[in-house]
Every structure is written in C-alpha cells, then in structure tokens.
C-alpha cells in the first residue's frame, strides 16, 4: 500500500507540496474548505472591485488534474488525532501516514471577536466580496441621505492596520472614490470621501526598511489617505471607531490588524506561539511527531535572532517544497534536511504607480517599485489565462481609471432604511449637484 | 421645474430610455434593486462557470455617468400610486410626471412556488451564482460518496423548459461535464454525467421555425443532452423530478419553464394578461394613464394576429426608445407615435460551435448559426472592456475547453453530510480509479 499523505489547505504551501509529491510514489489527498486555490496577495483587488474572483482563483482539482495520485476533498477539518494518525472532516474521515498542516491563519481581533461584524477582515474570497459590497453600498447610502453628518459617516472609510493588506486596501479605496466613481453620483462629490488608515505602531509597512516605510507614508498622503500612526483602536461599533483622542464616525471599518491560527491548532496538544501558530523543528516537523509537518502562515519557525519567519507566500512555497522532500526522504529511508529560507525580498503597493520593494540591499520605490510589484505578482499568478486577463484588465484600468467589477452581489443588496438616517425624498433637478 | 421621469428597472428597456432621455430637458431617476445593468442573454454562461459576473454586468451609474440630469436610486419599488403619481421605495419615495415601468419578469412555477427551493430559476446574477454553486457542488458530492445510486443522482442534471435559457443551460452543463472537469475527479468519470432537458411542448425552441427546432434537437443529442419532449413535470423535490412515466432521481434541477410579472403589477389596478404582464396601448402607455408607460418583458403588447410581442432584448430596447420619444413628444406638446417593432431576428446557441438563427426568410444553423450568435452577443455587450474580455475568455476556452470561473462561493460552500448519503472514508490508492 502506498504511503498516504494528507495535506490540509490548498494555499501556496499546500498546493506546492501536493505538486511536488505528485511525482512521487505516494497517495496524496488535499483537503480544503474551498474548491479553489486563492492568489491571496491580490485579494484586496477583489475587495475594491478591480478584479473578479475568478481572476485570482483556480480550482484546486484543476491544478492537480494531471496527477492521478493526488485527490482533492472539499471539506472542513474538524479535528486531527496525531496519535491515531486520523483527520476528521465535516463529511468523513481520513487516515494518514504523513500529514502536512497548511491551513493558514485568520484575522484576529486581539480578544475582541465581537468587532468582526462591524469591521470585517480580508482572508477569503467571501471576505473580499463582503468588503466590496460594503464599500460600494456606502456610496449608495451616501447618495440616498440628505443628512450631511450621516453622509460624512458613509463617506468615511477606516482601515485598521498598516501592514501590506491595510495599505493596499486604503490606497485602492481612495482611488475608487477619487477616480472610478468620481462622476457617478449627483448629491455629493465622491472625491470628498475620507480614507483613514489607523496603525498602532510608529510606521507603516514595518516589515520594510524604515526609509521605505517613510516613502510609503508620503505616497499614502499623496493618495489622500489620512494615516494615523501610534494610534490604538479602543472600540469598534456600527457607528465608527473609538480612538484615544476622539470618536471617528464611519459606517465602513475594515480590519487588517493581526492574524491568529485557526481553533484547530489549540486542540493538537503541541507547542504553540502566542497567536496559536505551531512550533516546528528545523525540518518542519512537529516536535514529537516526525510524520506531521506544518508549513506556511500556520508554522512558527524560530530564527536564531529570536524572531520567526513571516507569513509570506514565498516562505509557504519554499516550505511546501521542503516538507514534500522530507516526506520523500522519510519514505525512502533517507535523512531529512532542515528548511532554509531563501529570502528573495518583499514588496507592497500603495496605489496607482506607487510601490515599494526590497531585496537584500536593493530598495525600490515609486513607479519602479510599483512596476516590480506588478511584474512579480502577475508572474506568480497561477494559470496563463488568469495572468493574461489580469494584465489586460489592469492595462484597461490604467488607461481609463476604471474598475470593472463594481457589482453589489449577495443576499441583501438593497440599501436599508435605518432609523439613524432620515428618509430621502428625491427633489427635482434644482437640488442636483453636477 | 423640469419634467420628472421615473424609470423602474435598469435592464435593456429602462437603460435605453434613460440614455435617450439624457439628451432631453427632463429630470430622470432610474430605480433598480441592483446597482448594475445585466446582459441577461449571457447569464447562463455565469451559471455554468464560463464567465464572471463582472463580464456581463456594468454599474448603472457608470453607464449614465455623463448625463447630469439622470440620477440612479438603488432601491426596491414597494408600490406605485398611479393616481397620485408617486412611487414608494424600500428606502424612500419618488414623485413623477411620467413613469416608465421596465421591471421585467421573474421565473414562474405555474402555481407551485414551493418548487423554487429545489429547482432554482435563472433571472438574476445571484440566481446564476446559486446555480453555479449547485452544479459544481454536485460533482464534489459525487466524488465524496461510495454509494453508486447516490452518485448517479448527483451526476444527473435536469433542466425544465426547452426555451433558449433551458437549451443553453443544458448544452453548457453537458460541456462542463464532458470536457472542462473531465480529468478533475478520481472516483468517477464526469463524462458519465447525465443532462436531461424536459419540455412539455412537442419541440425545443418553439419560437423558431420547426426546421431549426429540429436541428437544435439533433444538436442537443450530439451534445449528449437527453431531450424529453411532450413531458410534463408533475412534482419536484430534493430527490428529483416526478415525470408522468417515472421518477427521475436528480440532486440538481434547474427551472427555465416560464415567467410571470412581479407582484407589483397586480397592485396597479390595470388590465393584465394571464401571467400578470401589463396591457399597453399602441404608444406603450397604459390605458387610462397616458403618462405611464410599460416596456420590455413586463409589457403585454397585443399583435393583430391575437399573439403578443415576445420578451426579447431587441423588443425592450426598441420600446425603451419609443417610450422616451413619446415622453419627449408629450412634454413638447407633439403627438405620440405608436410603437412598431422592427424584427431583426432571433437566435440561440446549443453548445460549442452549434447555434441557430433566423431573420425573416434567412435561417442559419450549426457552426454558422453559432458564429452569428457569438458575433451579435459580443457586439451588444455593453462597454468595450467587457466585450474584449469576454472575447478573450471565449477564445481561450475554445482552445482549452476550460471554464475559468469554476468557483464555489457563498455562505455554505462545504458539501454537507446528508442522512441520505453514507459517509465516505477515503481508502488507500487501490480504490482510486484513474
């Protein structure tokens, strides 16, 4: 009987491991709660109506279709029994000889899970569609009201957390308001919309060199994003966010401030870090469980300087490859090798024609940084079709300032009358601002 | 004060009227429950994962952005008071001098609304995403079960009604199974999926010449669609459909068998046809209400031969233009003119490289019919960007047999364990069919 490998999660790490193991004489099952692999670095583009879901997602089955020994299960993992080597799913059970946990992380509210309803985070495609819906509906509601204070709250967008996701979201929302929908409304000027980026630390994009953080900060201001550093969010409700010095009225608050491991990690009885990530050995296996590997965002991989590897796509990809190779080694009686991360650099974008990138001593910013970002992201998009489509859409958006996916879909698309807002009755033309 | 025109519905008819009136000295408000105009003839492509929602939809605001006298309200119309000339919305109220009702129709279950849950219809983008979800999940569930009868029910797709939507859906699902996902599963051959098209009448596409219906029938069979003519659906439940001669087990039933006017039409106190469509005068106004016009699918426009104009995009477009012109005439004291439909022909597609088209004495079928269909549909797609993207995706799909939008999104994406299905436990490789 072939060696059975179960991979939990079809993200960058899990998929890479599956593709590598497809060439070996093992039986692989990839379990994911979604049927698609998601190119997460571009998720903010879906949330801000620049790309369609299908542009950044491909069916996992399709990506491994040519590998007969790889099968895919669409299911939620409810528990893992490391001793019995069994994974329980929402709709079945799987036995394994080797296990790769690549389940990723969720956004975290630092002990305030009740904030989630009023401040959704961005990890999944459904998250992105929900954010898109809220952002677009905010403009619709601003058009509907005659109360200037209510309108200002609809036109204030607060993003909490100035990591790459937060910076990219804030920049894209500002562009959406200032260019894409600039001529679409009659009762207000969408360019009056305010985007506030709130960060508890003392600089944006703190994973980068301070000089690049500073350039990104300046660029955000040029993109009309109001950046509040050293500012903690004390409370979030449906009317806005409480900051230390004032209450900021806003009907659209987005959360990009932190991540934590899924609840599953705490049930395993293994060593975790503060956010629930699973500590791994240098060979990526879990201490005491040589056949269980953890890779990607879910892995806590300590570095000699006391820090740990960051949750980045390249880390996950390289770990997926290493875990697969170590399983192959174990099956054939060879020694496993420790994981060594090859740092090819990091990058982020602020908005139209502005990005930062660093690789070793090299630092790029502005238009050059943005082109580097564009090139790498399109290059790594999975599947030729998506790459071409995304390129074309971006080229078109570049020329026209357009965003093609401005659709409000979902169960309750019609703006609701809320008691807080007076009914708007439409006046004749004289009330129309042009 | 300018003449106030309210247009209910931003489909083909309503949008065309708004664009025409944008050039006149009137104040226009377009009300739609969605924020987008939908290119409905391609909706079946979204339902079968060939196109993304954004490829066939454009924000209504964007389409009228350059018209300062046209404003857009995203709202549901709850009632219309023809005497007081007021429209009540879910979130406000509108007074009008002239009204254009272009609210379209919904699918109808011939007095069996309880069938809707087990047999969704295809009228909106959310309908299409729900159908896509069900079709893709059916394959996932077929992969999960070990019970051959349960699997056969998951792999049987029933489409009720052989009008253009039913024929297009059936053809596309068959292609999806036989080509797109053909290599994606390990425990069954997707090519064994069965697509059954059930029609109460004695031919498919009955709006066409009988010779073309026959060609479409043959083409459907070549596309492995099992067509059952003269067959009434007696009951629908979650296990399948009851036909006169047998019960057909199927977990995916789609409804394309009839339409009816929205409930609103019955509250107006005007003359309706059997399906609730509003009878109009030759100038498209409602008898007794010279300032109220009804256009598109919602209008019942009697023809001299006792029939009425069909619910087609060209009819709606031309009526939108005529209603706009008649409002302009009324405002300037000119006489209104009767609507004259210029029939440019009708067309439908059966699947890859197979379509039918007729215009006057001209009849096309096969590849030529399909190319005509393709050309016209891409030509009429609103917005250059969408046209180019759709062309590119179709060209790519043509070469690769791929369908790029195979994403299962929505609230409950994970296949559920149902009592009717035994749990599947994944065996080792020997159980895997390749």
General description of the model:
The structure is a homodimer of 434-residue chains. Chain A has 434 residues and is an alpha/beta fold. Chain A is 29% helix and 24% strand. In chain A, the strands form eight sheets. A six-stranded mixed beta sheet of chain A has the order 5-2-1-9-21-20, covered by helices on one side. In chain A, a hairpin with a 2-residue loop joins strand 24 and strand 25. In chain A, helix 4 runs antiparallel to helix 5. The longest helix of chain A has 20 residues. At the A-B interface, strand 5, strand 8, helix 4, helix 10 and strand 26 of A face strand 4, strand 5, strand 8, helix 4 and helix 10 of B.
- Radius of gyration of chain A, in angstroms, nearest whole number: 23 Å
Distance from N terminus to C terminus of chain A (CA atoms, Å) equals 73 Å
Quantity of strands of chain A, as a count? 26
Beta fraction of the residues of chain A? 15-25%
Structural class of chain A: alpha/beta
Strand order of the largest sheet of chain A: 5-2-1-9-21-20
- Major pleated sheet of chain A: 6 strands, mixed
Could you name the ranges of chain A where pLDDT drops below 50 across 5 or more consecutive residues?
A: 416-434
Oligomer: homodimer
Helix content of chain A: 25-40%
Largest interface: A-B, 77 and 78 residues
Task: Specify the overall morphology of chain A.
Answer: globular
- Tally of separate helices of chain A: 10
Summed over residues and divided by their number, the pLDDT of chain A gives a mean of 89
